[in-house]
Amino acid sequence: MSDETHSIVSPRFLKVAACLAGAALIGRSASAQFASAVDLSSVSSQRTASEWRGQFAVSPFMRFDHPSLALDARWTALGGDGQRLDGFGEFAATYFSRTRAGLQFSLAGFGDRTLLDESFAVSRIGADARLSYRLGSSGAWLGRGVARDNQSTPGSPVAHYSVGGWRQWRSVIVTVSVSSFGSQEGARAATTRQIVRPITSGPLAPIDTGRNFQSLDTITVVDSGSAGRQHDWRDAELGLHWSAGRLALDGVFGTRYAATNQPNESWASVQSAVAVAPTIALIASAGVRPSSAAYGIGRSRFMELGARVSPGTLRRPRLPRGVRPTAAAFQVDDDHGGRRLRVRVPSARSVDLAGDFTNWQPIALKQGDTDEWEVTLPIAPGVHRLVIRIDGDRWTTPPGVVTVADEFQGTVGVIVVR
To answer: Residue 6 falls within a domain, yes or no?
Structure first.
């Protein structure tokens, strides 16, 4: 790894890649959803034994969702307090496999740039693979990640593992995860090299040093290397994700334990968004960021307050990879002669519906406010059967409806339209 200070992933590259990828993929499937937004906010931070420092932040970001692919790109430009304009951001692409017996594989690749303090930035590229399992409204995942950065230090974290679980109660999702990190200080690989040197003694040494030739000897030098000193630590996090109507709330509490050459510490953060208009929401966040002993950066506190100009689809951040939500509510309403079907699913990428009124052909629902997905269809009065599918997973019955067995040894939901 290089110790150069230039960014591995430039801001321009992130923006161009995000736009091209989204433009190339959108429209290939009726289930695809593309959305963009921008945050305008005031950000304040305080490091240990220092004063609070305020900056103005502009953060454009985009999201592309598909049952088998998700793209995220974000860039935050910071300025204020007479300091030069700087920024940070990331681009990530995640592939999701089809589910088999409740199991799903996902593979994410990412590049990001992080400002650890006013004058120190770290850029990374990496990948993260996860195997998740869902049973009803709960599940678990196992992950393996690798990353490289452009500010290598003896304490830079190397490949890590993660394990986590989640449980959903209607619109509330609780997540628990443990990540294992490690670094190798003073590690040196084994090497072999040859040295050519003149012979100054022995039977092969020249007798007359004034002659124009010189006897040479080649020797092999072997360096067995060194394993260095291993430094390991574990990060455990408890997350709470909740939304209701126009309000979305996400909180995280974390702690570091079993650490060598790293401080055992705790941190927490909370972020919220509340809609005040169809495309405008107020955003607020506050918390404590953990230290980074690898780069000599201490813990810090932060606060942010601003506005988000976006559709409701981007009112809240994504759930951790490996969490696969289920439908929390289902409703059928009259809508000018048609029937509007609404499904509430926390942080879904896509929702499809099929029923006897669609000839059992999948219909993609459109995401509305926060976690609401809806479609309006001409459904005749009577008894109808239907099923829904979330994020390309298996077909299941909507919550809160009567279920019956169908002729294909499956289960469908039954609704009565008057």
So the answer is: no
CATH of the domain at 374: 2.60.40.10
> Are 306 and 388 in the same domain?
no
What are the respective helix, strand and coil percentages of the chain, to the nearest 5?
A: 5, 60, 35
On whether both 309 and 358 belong to a single domain, the answer is no
Q: Per residue of the chain (418 residues), what is the pLDDT tens digit?
A: 333 333 344 444 444 444 444 444 433 445 788 889 999 999 998 887 778 888 899 999 999 999 999 999 999 998 876 566 788 999 999 999 999 999 999 999 999 998 876 667 889 899 999 999 999 899 999 999 988 888 766 556 666 899 999 999 988 999 999 998 876 655 556 677 777 666 666 565 555 555 555 566 677 777 666 655 667 788 999 999 998 878 899 999 999 988 776 678 999 999 999 988 888 999 999 999 888 766 777 788 999 999 999 876 777 788 898 999 999 999 998 887 789 999 999 889 999 999 999 999 999 999 877 788 999 999 999 999 999 999 989 899 999 999 998 877 688 999 998 8
- Looking at the DSSP bridge assignments, the partners of residue 164 are 141, 177
Q: Tell me the whole-structure pTM to 2 decimals.
A: 0.78
d(CA 228, CA 247): 50
Give the number of C-alpha atoms closer than 13 A to the C-alpha of residue 349, restricted to the C-beta side: 24
Residue 208 lies inside a defined structural domain of this protein: yes
Query: Which residue, 156, 61, 73, 162, is CA-closest to 116?
Result: 156
Give the domain range for residue 239.
11-186+227-314
- The answer to whether position 2 is within a domain reads no
Q: Does residue 197 share a domain with residue 165?
A: no
Closest by alpha carbon to 346, among 385, 304, 317?
317
Q: Supply the CATH number for residue 235's domain.
A: 2.40.160.40
**Nearest-angstrom CA–CA distance, 384 and 354:** 11
Q: Tell me: do 62 and 160 sit in the same domain.
A: yes
Q: Among 106, 87, 95, 112, which Cα is nearest to 17's?
A: 112
With contact defined as beta carbons under 8 Å apart, do 368 and 312 qualify? yes
Tell me which residue has tokens 């008057």: 418
Which amino acid, one-letter code, is at 226?
S
